[in-house]
Design a protein that fits this description.
Chain lengths: 250, 273
């Protein structure tokens, strides 16, 4: 046993990926990104580093917007949102994301909710973290069936885009010039071969792929204490699950 | 202006073929009024979701009342995908105008300002443009460099409808910081609102109370509907009835189950109030 759960590892990795930002927006149904952001906020506070603002969309408490739903997008276009998370039913090797469905549009066989704000946020938020816990060939496909938002663009104003791809198995970097992912690390319990087998698109990888950096004892303590408390306000079910996993591991 | 009427009279504003704007779940969805609208069976509605919808849109689709759906997403949130929407998409039962949230806001803001279009960043390279041929790419007229940018046309709904905590007897409606409701109403030809209660005192009486108010000028009709957003939440008043939304999600998986759910929906709304 490594002394931490896969979820705790992902949350700590998210905090590292966010390091240096001042304002991050997270979706109302995204407890893991919110947990990572809260971990960063807590440890920056302890280290007396820059203050981190977290906007939880749709939350009445953790949301300082006063101009309605449009304010997130205005705020983003003004360059005031440093990081955001996007997922997708499908993500391909060029970081194109599909939030619409599989098969021929519009009469898609499987229909997901829709693009939401992705066709805007992906272009304008400097540090977009692609996050999808399920790591399988049905998610990570050679080519998405529908491009909700493209990974890269040429010839347009686009200050934002993909910064990293984090899954339940691994962490990838994205090279905008090469339009390719490269495997940075695999999580404890998985091998580089596992990741290759579960990924439907091609990507670069070093000869020896390191293990994803384990959360420090200090980070784990903050996560298990203060962050779990904070999470239970907006994501009570998720906070309970984290507590349950910990008891099981103990 | 801001006339206080019965729920039935309010619902009659939604005529067949009209362009109907509805808000997202976090803004106050007029569910009681939706049941009253469904009872009138206005067909071929063009529903504009500001910028997404959930149970309300799924119900209107399941009832076969939607001719065009303009939305950035349809979801029941934690209860999962919207089953009648998914089924209707597979069957091609209505015209689908997929969008992205800020483009819907921009279209309404153009409508609010009375200008024909508004420019918006992003979108270029998205497959949305393949079917949203009403969105155009233009050169930024103020740049000497090549700078393509999307323009979206103004959205002018015939009717917008939402649920709010409170109106006063003069027809002013408290919308708090849900400012998209103001944009929706100002862009629309008519706005109908259900409220939890009517206050005797004018909401415009003090600077504090007037700050988050949609003035009666933009409000066509108001009806009282206690717990009128149930089972969806109403900001500052009550939360979502998770069990009820889950029950809907499970039953609406089949047309028969959906029909059975809808059969008792109006009665259950009255009981919930």
């Amino acid at each position: 046993m490594p002394g931490y759960s896969n979820r705790e590892l992902i949350i700590a990795t998210i905090a590292d990926l966010l390091d240096g930002i001042r304002h991050v927006a997270v979706g109302a149904s995204s407890p893991m990104p919110a947990a990572g952001a809260m971990l960063l906020r807590a440890r920056n506070e302890i280290a007396k580093r820059e203050r981190v603002r977290i906007s939880i969309l749709g939350s009445e408490e953790h949301n300082f917007f006063t101009n309605g739903g449009v304010e997130l997008f205005d705020c983003t276009a003004q360059g005031r949102v440093d990081a955001f998370f996007l997922g997708g039913g499908q993500i391909d090797g060029e970081a194109n994301i599909n939030l619409v469905g599989t098969g021929d549009y519009p009469q898609t066989e499987v229909r997901w909710p829709g693009c939401f704000g992705s066709a805007f946020m992906y272009y304008l938020v400097p540090r977009v973290i692609l996050f999808r816990e399920e790591h399988s060939p049905r998610v990570f496909v050679p080519k998405v069936d529908y491009i909700s938002a493209p990974g890269v663009s040429d010839g347009i104003v686009r200050p934002g885009g993909p910064h990293a791809l984090l899954t339940g198995m691994a962490l990838f970097d994205f090279d905008k010039q090469k339009k390719r992912f490269s495997l940075r690390s695999v999580h404890h319990g998985y091998t580089a071969a596992d990741v290759r087998a579960a990924t439907g698109f091609d990507y670069d990888a070093p000869e020896n792929v390191p293990e994803t950096k384990a959360p420090s004892a200090e980070n784990l303590a903050i996560l298990r204490g203060r962050v779990t408390e904070e999470l239970s306000e907006s994501y009570p079910a998720f906070a309970e699950m984290l507590r349950g996993e910990r008891k099981e591991a103990a | 202006m801001g006339e206080i009427v019965s729920l039935e009279e309010l619902a009659a504003e939604v005529q067949p073929g009209c362009k109907l704007a509805v808000p997202a779940d976090y803004c106050g969805v007029a569910m009681s009024a939706t049941a009253a609208i469904i009872a009138n069976r206005p067909k071929n509605l063009h529903v504009v979701c500001v910028p997404v919808t959930g149970m309300q849109g799924d119900m209107l689709i399941g009832e076969g009342l939607v001719g065009t759906l303009e939305t950035s997403a349809v979801t029941l949130g934690e209860a999962g995908g919207a089953p009648r929407f998914q089924d209707a998409v597979r069957k091609g039962s209505f015209k689908l105008m997929d969008a992205t949230c800020p483009a819907v806001h921009s279209g309404l803001i153009a409508g609010q300002k009375g200008v024909p279009f508004l420019p918006i960043r992003g979108i270029i390279g998205s497959d949305l443009l393949k079917t949203r041929t009403d969105w155009k790419t233009i050169q930024n007229p103020f740049s000497d460099e090549e700078d393509p940018i999307i323009v979206v046309p103004a959205i002018q709904p015939d009717v917008s409808i939402f649920h709010a905590p409170e109106a006063d007897r003069f027809g002013n409606v408290r919308i708090g910081r849900r400012r998209e409701l103001l944009t929706m109403a100002q862009a629309s030809k008519a706005t109908i609102v259900t409220v939890e209660r009517i206050s005797e005192e004018s909401l415009l009486k003090t600077e504090d109370s007037a700050a988050g108010v949609l003035p009666a000028l933009y409000v066509t009709k108001i009806a009282v509907a206690p717990r009128g957003a149930w089972p969806l939440p109403l900001w500052g008043e009550y939360g979502v009835d998770t069990a009820e939304v889950a029950r809907y999600a499970a039953m609406a998986r089949t047309p028969e189950g959906f029909a059975a759910y809808m059969d008792g929906f109006a009665r259950r709304l009255r009981e919930a109030a």
